[in-house]
């Protein structure tokens, strides 16, 4: 059964509300009972104090035989009786003492004894048997003792209830804490992780990596989104293959055109020289004939060079990987071209010693040589060739640059310099395949190359290489 993310969040929120509601109800009930108990204790203390006052006036009466003391005793007994009846009526459900009716009966008996005591008094003297006095005192002591026990018991119970209430509040935090953890885990596994998976996949798609997103089984909108994205990626791969095929056909057309153009010039020259030789075969000017044959030979060599470059461009290169310090490759490349560099051109190497990568040393060295030679040829009046390198912040690879201070590349042709057979050099001085070859070498190393240039100030070729090659 699939449950949408909205329903999941709603259920989690509802569960949180239910648990919070139960905790609140339990807390409210505890507080309510505690409040009732406090009121009961207050009333019972009032009751107990009224009895104590009644007993005090009772004792004073037996000492002074003053009728006023008996009147005060009866007043406090009535107060005590009213308090006890009020407790029984309002708080009988919450009081611990369930025999309050007996206490009322005892109070009534005590009050009757005091009333009878007044009747026996004549002319300021007490004519009453000693056993009657003992009865009144006994009744008073019993009521006082029983009420004192009730008050102590209620006080102890209230203290226990306060302690339990604190414990309940602490225990009540436990389900809230557990629920919070469960909600956090739910958000991590059902919201955060799917979002990260989808986000990483979208980043890869933006980089041109059209791999399917790993399936997620959350049973909600995220699962549907991943399914839709995978369908989109499948369609993109299909369209990408069609585009690559179209680009291959276009490249093949440009390549064929370039080959025809490059070979056509020397073949025409050879053809012209042969025709002249045929026409001048009977002529005795051997020097002129020799000159034509030498020219034809040069054109043949030129054609061979074109074919050789073309074969090298088309050949599938195998990589022999080796862990190499990049600075050593730079130094080797400079040594190999040093003899071709005029004295008015200087090299500046700004490459850290610790940059090390797994590469095909010969291929990367060739990239450096071609870029350096191009930089030298761009500076007819001399200048500086600067080679820089630095590690990437992501620590996944490093960048290096070959910078010249030459004439620069015109803006209208800078997008064509990596095309096969494109060259701005004079006829016979270049095949136009050098930059195409190094572009292929960089791609083979899972690297990148780009160019920026400003006319009159120079050109910068920037290359990126990973530290390790993919398996």
For the record, give the distance between the C-alpha atoms at the N and C termini, rounded to a whole number. 41 Å
- Percentage beta strand: 5-15%
The spatial strand order of the largest sheet comes to 4-6-7-9-8
Note the main sheet: 5 strands, mixed
Name the helicity range: 55-70%
- What is the N-to-C succession of helices and strands? HHHEEHHHEHEEHEEHEE
Topology:
Elements: H1 5-64, H2 67-91, H3 100-120, E1 121-122, E2 125-126, H4 130-206, H5 221-279, H6 286-314, E3 322-325, H7 326-337, E4 345-350, E5 356-359, H8 361-378, E6 383-391, E7 397-404, H9 434-444, E8 448-454, E9 458-466
Parallel strand pairs: 4-6
Antiparallel strand pairs: 1-2, 3-5, 6-7, 7-9, 8-9
Helix pairs in contact: 1-2, 1-4, 2-3, 3-4, 4-5, 5-6, 7-8, 8-9
How would you describe the overall organization of this protein?
With 471 residues, the protein is an alpha+beta fold. The protein folds into three domains: 5-191, Four Helix Bundle (Hemerythrin (Met), subunit A), CATH 1.20.120; 238-314, Signal transduction histidine kinase, dimerisation/phosphotransfer (DHp) domain (Helix Hairpins), CATH 1.10.287; 322-466, Histidine kinase-like ATPase, C-terminal domain (Heat Shock Protein 90). Helix content is 66%, strand content 11%. It has helices spanning 5-64, 67-91, 100-120, 130-206, 221-279, 286-314, 326-337, 361-378, 434-444; strands spanning 121-122, 125-126, 322-325, 345-350, 356-359, 383-391, 397-404, 448-454, 458-466. The strands form three sheets. Strands 4-6-7-9-8 form a five-stranded mixed sheet, with helices on one face. The chain has a two-stranded antiparallel sheet with strand order 1-2. A hairpin with a 3-residue loop joins strand 8 and strand 9. Helix 5 packs antiparallel against helix 6, helix 7 packs across helix 8 (361-378) and helix 8 (361-378) packs antiparallel against helix 9 (434-444). The longest helix is centred in the middle third of the chain and has 77 residues, at 130-206. The chain is rod-shaped and about 185 Å long. The model has no long low-confidence stretch (mean pLDDT 79).
């Amino acid at each position: 059964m699939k449950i949408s993310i909205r329903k999941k969040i709603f259920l989690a929120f509802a569960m949180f509300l239910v648990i919070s509601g139960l905790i609140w109800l339990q807390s409210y009930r505890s507080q309510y009972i505690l409040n009732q108990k406090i009121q009961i204790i207050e009333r019972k203390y009032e009751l107990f104090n009224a009895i104590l006052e009644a007993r005090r006036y009772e004792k004073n009466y037996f000492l002074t035989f003053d009728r006023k003391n008996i009147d005060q005793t009866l007043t406090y007994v009535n107060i005590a009786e009213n308090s006890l009846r009020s407790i029984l009526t309002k708080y009988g459900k919450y009081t611990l003492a369930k025999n309050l009716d007996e206490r009322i009966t005892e109070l009534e008996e005590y009050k009757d004894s005091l009333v009878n005591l007044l009747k026996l008094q004549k002319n300021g003297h007490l004519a009453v048997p000693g056993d009657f006095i003992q009865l009144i005192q006994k009744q008073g002591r019993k009521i006082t003792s029983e009420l004192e026990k009730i008050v102590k018991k209620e006080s102890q119970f209230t203290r226990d209830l306060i302690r339990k209430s604190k414990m309940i509040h602490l225990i009540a935090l436990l389900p809230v804490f557990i629920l919070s953890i469960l909600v956090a885990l739910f958000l991590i596994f059902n919201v955060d992780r799917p979002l990260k998976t989808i986000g990483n996949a979208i980043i890869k798609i933006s980089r041109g990596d059209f791999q399917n997103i790993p399936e997620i089984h959350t049973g909600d909108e995220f699962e549907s989104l991943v399914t839709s994205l995978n369908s989109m990626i499948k369609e993109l791969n299909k369209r990408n293959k069609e585009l690559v095929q179209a680009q291959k056909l276009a490249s093949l057309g440009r390549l064929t055109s370039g080959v025809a153009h490059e070979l056509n010039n020397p073949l025409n020259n050879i053809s012209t020289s042969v025709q002249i030789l045929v026409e001048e075969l009977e002529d005795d000017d051997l020097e002129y004939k020799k000159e034509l044959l030498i020219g034809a030979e040069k054109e043949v060599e030129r054609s061979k060079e074109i074919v050789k470059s073309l074969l090298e461009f088309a050949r599938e290169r195998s990589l022999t990987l080796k862990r190499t310090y990049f600075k050593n490759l730079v130094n080797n490349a400079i040594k190999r071209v040093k003899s071709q560099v005029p004295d008015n051109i200087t090299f500046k190497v700004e490459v850290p010693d610790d940059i090390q990568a797994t590469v095909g040393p010969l291929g990367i060295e060739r990239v450096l040589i071609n870029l350096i030679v191009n930089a030298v040829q761009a500076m007819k009046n001399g200048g500086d060739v600067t080679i820089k390198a630095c590690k990437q912040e992501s620590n996944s690879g490093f960048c290096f640059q070959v910078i010249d201070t030459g004439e620069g590349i015109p803006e209208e042709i800078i997008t064509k310099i990596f095309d096969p057979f494109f060259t701005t050099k004079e006829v016979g001085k270049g095949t136009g395949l050098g930059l195409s070859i190094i572009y292929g070498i960089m791609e083979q190393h899972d690297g990148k190359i780009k160019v920026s240039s400003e006319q009159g100030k120079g050109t910068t070729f920037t290359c990126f290489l990973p530290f390790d090659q993919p398996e």
